[in-house]
């Protein structure tokens, strides 16, 4: 069985960066060049500095959200810690109105997996630049991951949030493939990023930087003929799935109720 907290190796350009963090989708060649993914650092604001207003706001939110431990929102945040492609697709099954999995949607899975390579490369450039600490490394407070997972996360800089980048990238892809579900999908993608704050493993500024990073990457990917070709293939596959979709399970109603209120 694969260790979910293994060290993830990300390759881009001629550099190898190793972060100890939850296993992300397996890396395959992306759609963008290393120059394109590296340029995202010019778009995303610098990480907060100790004592500045953004830093103080981050820490205030970290302290306030520790009260969510044991709540339904905390449990959902723990579920959102799964960064595998299967985990990402599962998170969007309710807003898409269809069960998404690598088995039911292999073309979509391949698209998300390849797009994640670009998103991961951009993320690592920014993490390397700022080396920003996670909130639990600065202040005391429980987090929603295991002690082993927490220890692994200490090896990976806070800014930007990789979970947020990959979930927002996936949300943008699904919104492009199924515009009728775009609002629900992007709302769920936003909540996926917020789960990192609920968990106490990322600052809000890192989540916001993740949304910006993924948006920049997706925008550049849309200029890639290969990306657009894979989008078309996934669109056809998804339309077939939605054509035989069943009614949403009761768990989707419960999830919607949990997400109806912002956690901070």
Strand order in the largest sheet: 1-2
> What are the segments in which pLDDT stays under 50 over at least 5 consecutive residues?
1-22
Based on secondary structure, the structural category is: mainly alpha
Tally of helical runs: 12
Number of strands: 2
Cα end-to-end separation: 36 Å
Characterize the biggest β-sheet.
Answer: 2 strands, antiparallel
H and E string: EEHHHHHHHHHHHH
Strand content: under 5%
Shape: globular
What would you report as the Rg, rounded to the nearest angstrom?
Answer: 18 Å
- Helical content stands at 55-70%
Average pLDDT rating? 90
Summarize this structure briefly.
This protein is mainly alpha-helical and 264 residues long. Helix content is 57%, strand content 5%.
């Amino acid at each position: 069985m694969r260790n979910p907290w293994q060290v993830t190796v990300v390759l881009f350009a001629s550099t190898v960066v190793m972060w100890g963090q939850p296993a992300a989708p397996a890396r395959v060649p992306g759609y963008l060049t290393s120059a394109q993914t590296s340029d995202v650092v010019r778009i995303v604001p610098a990480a907060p500095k100790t004592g500045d207003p953004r830093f103080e706001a981050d820490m205030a939110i970290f302290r306030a959200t520790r009260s969510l431990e044991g709540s339904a929102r905390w449990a959902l945040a723990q579920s959102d810690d799964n960064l595998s492609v299967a985990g990402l697709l599962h998170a969007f099954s309710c807003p898409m109105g269809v069960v998404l999995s690598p088995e039911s949607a292999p073309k979509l899975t391949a698209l998300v997996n390849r797009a994640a390579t670009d998103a991961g490369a951009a993320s690592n450039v920014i993490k390397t630049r700022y080396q920003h600490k996670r909130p639990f490394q600065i202040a005391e407070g429980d987090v929603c991951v295991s002690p082993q997972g927490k220890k692994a996360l200490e090896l990976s800089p806070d800014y930007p949030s990789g979970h947020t980048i990959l979930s927002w990238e996936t949300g943008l892809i699904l919104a492009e493939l199924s515009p009728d579900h775009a609002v629900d999908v992007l709302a769920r993608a936003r909540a996926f990023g917020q789960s990192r704050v609920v968990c106490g493993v990322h600052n809000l500024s890192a989540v916001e930087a993740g949304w910006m990073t993924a948006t920049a990457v997706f925008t550049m990917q849309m200029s890639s003929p290969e990306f657009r070709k894979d989008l078309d293939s996934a669109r056809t596959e998804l339309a077939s799935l939605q054509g035989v979709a069943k009614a949403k399970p009761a768990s989707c109603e419960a999830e919607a109720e949990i997400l109806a209120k912002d956690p901070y």
